[in-house]
Amino acid sequence: MSDALIYADQTAGPYGRAMTVEQPLADMLRRHGPDSPHAAAHAERAPVLRAAVHHVQQRLHALRHTPSAAGRRAASTSTAR
Predict the structure, then answer these.
(1) Which of 6, 34, 43, 67 could be stapled to 52 by a disulfide with Cβ–Cβ 3.0 to 4.6 Å?
(2) How far is the CA of 10 from the CAs of 18, 45, 50, 68, in angstroms?
(3) Inter-axis angle of helices 37-64 and 22-32, nearest 10
(4) Cβ neighbours, 10 Å, residue 9
């Protein structure tokens, strides 16, 4: 669950705009500056955030490319009409 929350937080920008995980990381450093506690934690925090985003992306990719996922998409499309 924490990976999913990190994914949502790190890949959606203002107004729901899609972002890469690198964008909010760079934005944080720019906003808080190189001498901030945020910058001090960056070397340890960034790999954890990147890994969480990667795990969710892998899971989403796997779900989109399974036969059962294709069946669910087809069923939801036909019932939505």
Answers:
(1) 6
(2) 9, 12, 9, 28
(3) 170
(4) 13
Domain ranges in the chain are 2-79
Q: Is the dihedral of CA 34, 38, 44, 46 positive or negative?
A: negative
13: CB partners within 8 A, 6+ apart: 19, 23, 24
SS3 content of the chain, % helix, strand, coil (to 5): 80, 0, 15
Instruction: Give the pLDDT confidence of 14-24 residue by residue, as tens digits.
Output: 899 999 999 99
Q: What is the per-residue pLDDT across 47-56, written as a single tens digit (0 to 9) for each? A: 999 999 999 9
Separation between Cα atoms, residue 51 and residue 13, nearest integer Å:
19
